[in-house]
Specification:
- The chain is an alpha/beta fold and 137 residues long.
- 31% of the residues lie in helices and 23% in strands.
- A 5-stranded parallel beta sheet has the order 3-2-1-4-5.
- It has one domain: Vaccinia Virus protein VP39 (Rossmann fold).
- The protein is globular.
- The relative contact order is 0.17.
- Strand 1, helix 1 and strand 2 form a beta-alpha-beta unit.
């Protein structure tokens, strides 16, 4: 998804929201690319890690909405979280509300039907287990 951000690489002072930021890896990468970035996640453990790293992050449940003002962000990033929310349409409406007009919503949904992921499931492992262990979350 970072390839989509290349058109903004020369623009400064863009504000990004990382939904489902976990322990802040993507939030940090957005900051490294020049964004002013904020992260949100439902996990208090993950947000505590973010705060120890000095990131601007807070705990929230996006199924209850996004606690941000209208037209705030130039970019909303939601990597592999849409499939975890109760109401994806509410999430999309909330993203539309907090995005500035004409700005970008980047999201991804994992391919759990990939053969490697199917084999992991067959042996009782979550397709995301490797990521969680790597991140310590």
């Amino acid at each position: 998804m970072f390839d989509f951000l290349k058109i903004y690489s020369k623009v400064e002072n863009l504000y990004a929201l990382d939904i489902g930021c976990a322990t802040g890896e993507i939030t940090k990468k957005l900051i490294d690319k020049g964004y002013k970035a904020k992260g949100i996640d439902f996990s208090t453990v993950a947000i505590d890690i973010c705060k120890r790293e000095g990131l601007d992050c807070y705990v929230t449940d996006v199924d209850e909405g996004i606690n941000e003002s209208n037209n705030t962000f130039d970019l909303v990033w939601a990597g592999d979280i849409v499939e975890h929310v109760f109401d994806p349409m509410l999430l999309i409406k909330e993203v539309e509300r907090v995005l500035k007009p004409g700005k970008i919503f980047l999201f991804s949904i994992p391919n759990d039907t990939h053969i490697i992921n199917r084999l992991r499931l067959l042996f009782g492992c979550s397709p995301q287990e490797v990521t969680y262990k790597t991140l310590g979350a």
